[in-house]
Design brief:
CATH architecture of the largest domain: Orthogonal Bundle
Largest sheet: none
Strand content: under 5%
CATH superfamily of the largest domain: Tetracycline Repressor, domain 2
Order of helices and strands: HHHHHHHHH
Radius of gyration: 21 Å
Helix content: 55-70%
Number of domains: 2
Shape: elongated
Number of helices: 9
CATH topology of the largest domain: Tetracycline Repressor, domain 2
Length: about 210
């Protein structure tokens, strides 16, 4: 890095009136999307452990600096992609019942876990997370925070309806519902059917209610 501001992705931006703070780089959205597409292609071709910023930049047809302006490492780049397919930003299910809400959550998560990005990256990231606390924290933030928000909303609504007591832990609810799904999809690699999701939602409801006894 030099002492000068990084050049804008768009050369014409230098001549345009500046509204951003002085020295801020103009990040073109088409370049950002090209980089994201290149990451998906690299993941499919070489996997997370062998993926490099150089390979991503070459596939996207940009310089490495264009990647580093947006993400400080390949880990942060991949976590950004995973976050786009995780539950963060989705509305809390509002079916009117605890079973319905958990079933909706499982439907969403089954699609998330089967997405090529998740299936290609999450197992590798969990291995890396076991070795590196910083990576573990980043993975939790990208993958788990959105799911936890959904679980908190589902439990709060169930408590308000009188389906659950006030002491139910949303994290426990998330473990009961999504844990078996993760095992089946990511670890075992078994197919997920509508009947399986129905059964898993019923089992999670029963377990949550019995935990209050």
């Amino acid at each position: 890095m030099t002492n000068h501001a990084a050049a804008a992705d768009d050369p014409a931006a230098a001549a345009a009136p500046r509204r951003a703070p002085a020295g801020a780089a103009v990040l073109r959205e088409d370049v950002t999307e090209a980089i994201r597409a290149a990451v998906l292609a690299e993941l499919a071709a070489v996997g997370f452990s062998r993926m490099s910023i150089e390979g991503i930049a070459r596939r996207a047809g940009v310089g490495k600096t264009a990647v580093y302006r947006r993400w400080k490492s390949k880990l942060h780049l991949v976590l950004d992609l995973i976050g786009a397919f995780a539950a963060e930003g989705l509305p809390v299910p509002a079916t009117g019942s605890l079973y319905g809400d958990l079933r909706a959550l499982l439907e969403v998560m089954s699609h998330v876990l089967r997405h090529p990005v998740a299936s290609a990256v999450i197992p590798d990231l969990l291995v890396e997370a076991a070795r590196n606390p910083e990576i573990a924290e980043a993975v939790r933030g990208a993958v788990l925070d959105g799911q936890r928000r959904l679980a908190e909303g589902i439990v709060a609504e169930a408590v308000a309806r009188g389906e659950l007591g006030a002491g139910v832990d949303p994290d426990h609810a998330l473990d009961l519902a999504v844990g078996p799904l993760y095992w089946r999809v990511v670890v075992v690699g078994e197919a997920v059917t509508a009947g399986y999701l129905d059964s898993l939602a019923r089992s999670a409801v029963a377990a949550l209610r019995s935990s209050e006894a």
